[in-house]
Specification:
Blueprint lengths: L1 H72 L3 H4 L10 H5 L1
């Protein structure tokens, strides 16, 4: 009988030890997950900043095009339709 009590005590103690190591493992996993969450947040912030820069560049490019086409619309039609202006590459000079 004493033998069974001794075995039960040892098993109970082993179970408590196992629970303690399991808790330690879970705490390490939680710490690793928190570290991963921080790194993921940094990565998302970098990507957000890069996409914001791309958006700003696109908007600036679009604004330049708008200004250019607005300036073209403002050209005097008599100058715009002048014959020499329709040959932007100067191909008439090559034909001479």
């Amino acid at each position: 009988m004493a033998k069974y009590i001794l075995i039960a005590c040892l098993l109970g103690r082993a179970g408590a030890l196992h629970a303690q190591t399991q808790t330690q493992i879970e705490l390490k996993q939680i710490a690793a997950l928190a570290l991963y969450a921080q790194e993921a947040k940094k990565g998302y912030e970098k990507i957000h900043a890069a996409l914001k820069n791309i958006k700003n560049i696109k908007e600036a490019e679009y604004a330049l095009h708008q200004i250019f086409y607005a300036a073209l619309a403002g050209i005097n039609p008599q100058i715009f339709f002048y014959v020499e202006n329709h040959d932007p590459l100067g191909s008439a000079a090559w034909q001479r």
